[in-house]
Amino acid sequence: MSTTTTQPPKISVLILGLDFSWTAAHRSALIDPATLRATVQRRIAALADVRDLHTETLLVNPDDGTARAVEVVGERLREGPGGGENDVAEGGGGGGGKKKSWDGVIFGWGMRGVADTSELFEGVVNCVREGAPGARMMFTLAEANHLEVLRRNFGGLVEEKGV
User: Fold this and answer.
1) Which domains does the chain have, with CATH numbers?
2) What is the superkingdom listed in this entry's lineage (predicted)?
3) Of 31, 55, 69, 89, which is most buried with the most CB atoms under 10 A?
4) pLDDT by residue (tens digit) across 41-61?
5) Confidence (pTM)
6) Poorest-confidence range of 15-19, 24-28, 121-125?
């Protein structure tokens, strides 16, 4: 009888951004919400084709308040990649061991690029700094350049199907 164990991806990244419905309600004078949503979702979905990369996305709503956004991000950081389902035993086997932590966190442009979300951005950055001290902090541009940001910070990422 043989047992197959699945190794976790080498790089795990949490992508943080603003809730799309909030963006549509509060930023439609600055951007086309439908175009933004489609572009960001397409770029994030394309990351599934990058070998040895695991990403998860968390969108926060500024209307809930900075304290609540920081709380939600902190909870997600503590859960780790896979939402707490990622315990690995010492030596890389599965089950019951040390929880894998995030290798990086990407902050979306909408959270940091407009003055009215500066307080939220500062709170979330400090939460990440404290909750995932070993994680690289990365920042996209308005063009949603997630893959470029990841390559800049974790060189050697290879697309399997072409992103």
Assistant:
1) 11-153 (3.40.50)
2) Eukaryota
3) 69
4) 898 899 999 999 999 999 999
5) 0.82
6) 24-28
